[in-house]
UniProtKB/TrEMBL annotation:
Family under the similarity heading: Belongs to the mitochondrion-specific ribosomal protein mS26 family.
Chief location category: mitochondrion
Subcellular location: Mitochondrion
Coiled coil (UniProt feature): 116-152
Gene Ontology, cellular component aspect: mitochondrial small ribosomal subunit
Protein name (Swiss-Prot/TrEMBL): Small ribosomal subunit protein mS26
Pfam family, one: MRP-S26
Transport recorded as keyword: no
UniProt entry keywords in alphabetical sequence: Coiled coil, Mitochondrion, Ribonucleoprotein, Ribosomal protein, Transit peptide
Length: 215
């Protein structure tokens, strides 16, 4: 709120303009006044200037002739600029006619289509080369995998054949239903002596027994 002590010395116009607005900025004990640079447009004419008739400026004949010459030069320049712009716009209208624009658009489309076709052919050739290289590489990889698998199969077959051969060799000593009686007799007549010695060189020393001795 604006206090009367803060606005003493101000005119009524200033007070009316500042009423309802916080235009007084306080910095401690100092008050800063903010005044209008000019009279606001929404305010009415002052009472002291309502019936004031302004004096018409008096211009000498020489000054009037000078001003008239400058104005004529200005008007001539403006007419020249206007005529230049009108002529340029008319030329642009002729140059950018609908039919001309359509013809230029068709020519541009044909040119862009040709460029696009050239790019498509170039990309297709590069794609064919890439696919051919990838196909050859894939065939080489498949051949290498087949050769590796063939080698593995051969190694596995050799291992299986060795196992089968070994099993066949060991099968001759197996006890079957046909030779079980012979195996029992051989086991009964075979002397097994567990009293044996071995030296540092790995030689076994066994006690000799009479062959006619039975268990």
């Amino acid at each position: 709120m604006i206090r009367a002590s803060a606005i003493m010395g101000s005119t009524a116009l200033t007070i009316r303009n500042l009423s309802g607005h916080d235009h007084l900025i306080s910095y401690g004990p100092c008050i800063q006044y903010v005044r209008w640079k000019r009279k606001p447009l929404w305010l009415s004419t002052a009472k002291t200037k309502v019936f004031r008739v302004p004096q018409r400026p008096v211009t000498s004949q020489e000054e009037f002739e000078k001003i008239k010459c400058l104005y004529n030069n200005y008007r001539t320049s403006i007419k020249s600029i206007r005529s230049f712009l009108i002529n340029k716009e008319a030329a642009n209208q002729v140059q950018y006619d609908t039919a001309s624009i359509k013809i230029l658009a068709n020519e541009d489309f044909i040119k862009c289509n040709e460029i696009n076709e050239d790019w498509n052919k170039q990309v297709a050739a590069e794609r064919q080369q890439r696919l051919a290289a990838e196909r050859e590489k894939r065939i080489e990889d498949i051949q290498m995998k087949l050769e590796a698998k063939k080698e593995r199969d051969l190694l596995l077959q050799a291992k299986v054949d060795a196992e089968i051969r070994k099993a066949k060799e060991e099968a001759s000593s197996f006890i079957t239903r046909d030779n079980i009686d012979e195996a029992i007799k051989e086991a009964l007549y075979t002397i097994v002596d567990h009293n044996a010695a071995i030296d540092l060189d790995g030689t076994f020393y066994k006690e000799e027994h009479n062959a006619n001795t039975t268990v």
